[in-house]
Write a structure and sequence with these properties.
Elements (H helix, E strand, L loop, with lengths): L16 H16 L22 H5 L6 E16 L3 E14 L5 E10 L2 E3 L17 E5 L16 E2 L4 E2 L6 E5 L5 E6 L8 E9 L5 E9 L9 E13 L1
Antiparallel strand pairs: 1-2, 1-12, 2-3, 2-4, 3-5, 6-7, 8-9, 9-10, 10-11, 11-12
Length: about 240
């Protein structure tokens, strides 16, 4: 991003008022021209990993002694087809119970398409019919069949130092004060432009996040706050 600097000029006191106003306007437009979206200040607020009650709570990213959890996961950047239907995005609705020892049991999993429509016939676009009701893609009552999409903490901790990993060959990581991943920057190759991703959270009183939004941030755009939301997760948690 190009940043223009404003040179400070000292004027003599005997300057015509209209000329002075013109110079102020000129300086103002010079400072504003070429400004795009400013990058976030990338920094980690902590290097200390979270402390989980056991491995199971870590697997589901839960602090404290959770009793029940409900996930609603909206994935916006995934599409596919079921043979009869195409879909653009899907939701996972997951209910989990935990006993007092922290062992989970699955109550239900229902995956639905966010938007579905009939496959066009004879390659005629006018035959597409949008459906009001989402298509159920998957149902399950087995805990082995679920996959909750988030970055595990054990894979982000350096075992030799017990610190959160800050970068690897292609990705730089930045964490907030709760130890949650806040920003990461992906550079796929030496000649590739970096891609910027951001997590935004809402927390409950136990410091568990109850809402998490993942978006890709675009800093080369002329549109302020230009971003694409990739995923949103809403969690409802009760405790022992």
């Amino acid at each position: 991003m190009k940043i223009n600097t404003v040179k400070i000029i000292k004027f003599k006191r005997r300057i015509h008022c209209s000329s002075f106003s013109t110079l102020l306007l000129l300086l103002f437009f010079t400072a504003c021209s070429g400004q795009g979206k400013e990058k976030t200040e990338f920094r980690s607020e902590t290097s200390t990993p979270k402390k989980f009650q056991n491995q199971q709570y870590e697997n589901y990213d839960l602090m404290g002694k959770a009793k029940t959890t409900q996930w609603e996961i909206f994935n916006y950047d995934t599409s596919g087809n079921t043979g009869k239907y195409y879909y653009n995005g899907y939701t996972d609705q997951i209910d989990l119970n935990f006993n007092k020892e922290g062992e989970p049991s699955l109550v239900k999993l229902v995956s639905k398409s966010i938007k579905a429509y009939q496959q066009p016939r004879d390659n005629k676009i006018e035959n597409i019919v949008y459906e009001k009701n989402p298509v159920i893609l998957l149902t399950s009552s087995s805990i082995e069949d679920i996959s909750i999409d988030y970055l595990t903490y054990s894979s982000k901790v350096d075992p030799s130092t017990n610190k959160l990993i800050s970068e690897n060959e292609y990705i730089k990581y930045y964490y907030n004060k709760y130890g949650d991943l806040q920003d990461y920057i992906v550079t796929e190759g030496k000649d590739e432009e970096p891609r910027y991703f951001k997590f935004i959270y809402k927390y409950d009183k136990k410091n568990n996040w109850i809402e998490r939004t993942l978006s890709e941030e675009f800093y080369d755009s002329d549109t302020p706050d230009d971003k694409e939301i990739i995923q949103k997760i809403v969690r409802t948690i009760t405790y022992y």
